[in-house]
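TL;DR need structure tokens for one chain.
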Amino acid sequence: MFGLDYLDLTNADAGRVDEALSQGKGDRLVGYIPSEKRLAFVLRNFRRLAELNVLELTWMQTYLHASHLNDFPLSAVQNVFDACDRAVLREHFPIREPP
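>> reply
TL;DR here they are.
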């Protein structure tokens, strides 16, 4: 439906992702993907998630809660950051100045 690669998600999980996107809940997309599968899902789908305007929040929520990135090359992680809209990242994840 949304052109995403649901390779290791169950049909039920894929359906929940599609439903979240169709209901405009892309900002909470990671809540519909099992935690152990989120990183691989986002890395496989980051270009399409960017087209759907849900990459930045989905990526940062995934990245910040990832227990390790050892299974993926650093270049893959960098590619996702490069695809993110920097203005959206700054808006939702501002760098705070020290007091």
